[in-house]
Amino acid sequence: GMGSAPHHDRLGHMGPRGISRLNAIVLGEALAAEENDLVFPSHDFSRHAHISSPEQYQNMYERSIEDPAGFWSDIASQFYWKKRWNPEVYSENIDVRSGTVKIEWFKGGVTNICYNALDRNIEAGNGDKVALYWEGNEPGQDAQQLTYAQMLEKVCQLANYLKHVGVGKGDTVIIYLPMLMELPIAMLACARIGAIHSVVFAGFSAKSLSQRIVDCKPKVVISCNAVCRGANVIHLKEIVDTALVESVNSGVPVDLCLIFENKSAMKRESTKWQIGRDVWWEDVVPQFPTKCLVEWVDAEDPLFLLYTSGSTGKPKGVLHTNGGYMVYTATTFKYAFDYKPSDVYWCTADCGWITGHSYVTYGPLLNGATVLVFEGAPSYPDPGRCWDIVDKYKVTILYTAPTLVRALMRDGDEYVTRYSRKSLRILGSVGEPINPSAWRWFYNVVGDSRCPISDTWWQTETGGFMITPIPGAWPQKPGSATFPFFGIQPVIVDEKGNEIEGECTGYLCIKKSWPGAFRSLYGDHERYETTYFKPFAGYYFTGDGCSRDKDGYHWLTGRVDDVINVSGHRIGTAEVESALVSHPHCAEAAVVGVDHEVKGQGIYAYVTLVDGIPYSEEVRKSLILAVRNQIGAFAAPDKIHWAPTIPKTRSGKIMRRILRKIASRQLDELGDTSTLADPSDVDQLIALIDR
Ligand code: 6R9
Predict the structure, then answer these.
(1) Could you tell me which residue ranges the AMP-binding enzyme C-terminal domain spans (predicted)?
(2) Does residue 561 carry a catalytic annotation?
(3) CA triplet 109, 170, 307: central angle to 5 degrees?
(4) Per-residue pLDDT tens digits for 486-510
(5) In what helix (H) or strand (E) does residue 344 lie, and over which residues does it extend?
(6) Is ligand 1 within 6 A of the CB of residue 353?
(7) Helix 68-76 crosses helix 54-66 at what angle (to 10 degrees)?
(8) What predicted TM-score, i.e. pTM, was given to this entire model?
(9) Three-class SS of residue 624?
(10) Ligand 1 lined by 354 (C-beta under 6 Å)
């Protein structure tokens, strides 16, 4: 069996009232537990948790919905504000008629998120506590660590340098770094001086990097010469060089590149250098003072941009602001991971994604947590590396992605069980739905059936967790993200946008705003309004499908738009298509997602070649290379399916539904093909399946 048996004495936690759904679950006893596959936190875990019963959750949740201003003001008051926010606390104008959207939280409040993450924790007596542990790619490599006080000094030196070279409030800075300590340091240095950081995941290609540079016009690009990941050395500086040539050609020159010499990967002597533009971090930053006054900013001043994929080819610059994001990431971190000061926290995500922003850097550091940053690849040198790291640093909270869980599961239990893992007390999952069998393996094998799993559903746009277990509060169901976080009102709507109640499946939307919500798309507020608030008037549309079961648990079912999720990375089908058609031999391309055992989804591309070019292995390889060069290796198609013509409706729309069925080989479920311009196109495709 799995999990601990339900505790009858849990009833002792329950008051006479509370949410009926949740009560029904807890009161339902063993039989219902088996039926529903409920997994209860141990009594001991719940007793020590911040929130230890469904009723306690329910009381807080009700207050957060009935009195958002009061609820969030109380929490925000725990941070340092130079000036308190306006009395109305928040204002949300989601105007159905005009289609305009404006969201503000803590407007008028003046604060600084870097001050709250570092100075405030130091003043509270935690200056000597470890803020960051850093584990390099090689197991034997010298590990490093920084206390809160040391980290503040590093952040101040860089902040002073950035000010010295003319970066000020409201300027943008691109950070293109791997998982070195310098990455969170650079983010915080920008935040300290009111500059807007835009971190670009170091797996993105030169083309993608230059696209982002052209869009946000940074004063400085911060990068490093190279990094080792697993057995590979990646020459990031060369990618930056190429990107900067392209951005100059697009009329956006970058005058300054601050390059960190990552000595374990590459020496500076072998790094190509552009004198006048390139500066070694180590040559300049350490010369600056270790104290730097903060730039006080309004709660609604921008904190960062993070580009993400949507259903068109152009990435969207998701914009987050200071105050609400600070309050929201800190609070979600505390409750969803039941954070305690003694925890050692490890999130395997890269700071190039939102998870690394909210739950490597800001959320944990705002709580004064000790955070582990790992440079390498989780299966290098062997699939036991994660557990080696867990034991070495006595990690208590491990937050990772289903794709890694599935990969490690396939490698076998022995890699896990040879390590103790007894420090672990909470496991977390993010990025895509976690299938019940991976959930069980994570729970039973990795967590020895002791550690609750927080399966956190959220998005780049939401800033922080939206639907997530509160681990001590209620029983879990493997594969369900459970219930909404405080202040979040998820609704499931049908095609027409009508809310559906009870047990149902539909489109997931969110009613009202919350402090961590994104405020705009950089430079394109109208696209923000049309993409997210028009599809279902009055709601924020998530792009995800969702079911609610009879007990009110939420089950995310994946994207319903043209976004695919490969190993937790969000990729727009349109982006891959435009990369493919940029290849001179490609006439047309249509990309769909297909189930993949480890990656969740794989990328399946149908390609029509220009007349006269025969399909060959060589062409296939160069098409894949085109995608790697245009986007990055993580977006490379798993399969190229040669398509003499791509099936379309008479009005010229690609029939993706049919393409998905063929991709997943559900050939007897193609459905109605009579609306196609030429139904025989489908037969032709099927005939070419094994070509
Ligand atoms: C945080 C992050 C967002 C999309 C989202 C959804 C999927 C993320 C999930 C999940 C099911 C979870 N997603 N977490 N689906 N269960 N726990 O991943 O942000 O990169 O913007 O992706 O990821 O489809 O819409 P982002």
Answers:
(1) 575-653
(2) yes
(3) 100
(4) 999 999 999 999 999 999 999 999 9
(5) strand 344-347
(6) yes
(7) 110
(8) 0.92
(9) helix
(10) yes
